[in-house]
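step=encode ok
step=design start
structure_in=
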């Protein structure tokens, strides 16, 4: 399977228990990172994306498989 890739500034959407959210990709995470108290186990082989929510402005890490271009 081809890995989804995004770049900073891309508008993306993802699903969650309350529906769907949209936001912008801030950057690709390729090393372990901490967002507030949450540990993100990102690596070069298993990258994640830091995304800022359009609605709330909150930032969270998402796996590429959870995101789609909006």
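sequence_out=
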């Amino acid at each position: 399977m081809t890995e989804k890739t995004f770049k900073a500034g891309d508008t993306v959407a993802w699903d969650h228990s309350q529906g769907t959210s949209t936001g912008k990709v801030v950057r690709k995470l390729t090393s372990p990172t901490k967002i507030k108290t949450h540990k993100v186990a990102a690596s070069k082989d298993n990258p994640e994306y830091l995304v800022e929510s359009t609605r709330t402005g909150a930032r969270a890490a998402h796996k590429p498989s959870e995101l789609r271009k909006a």
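step=design ok
step=annotate ok -> The chain has a mean pLDDT of 93.
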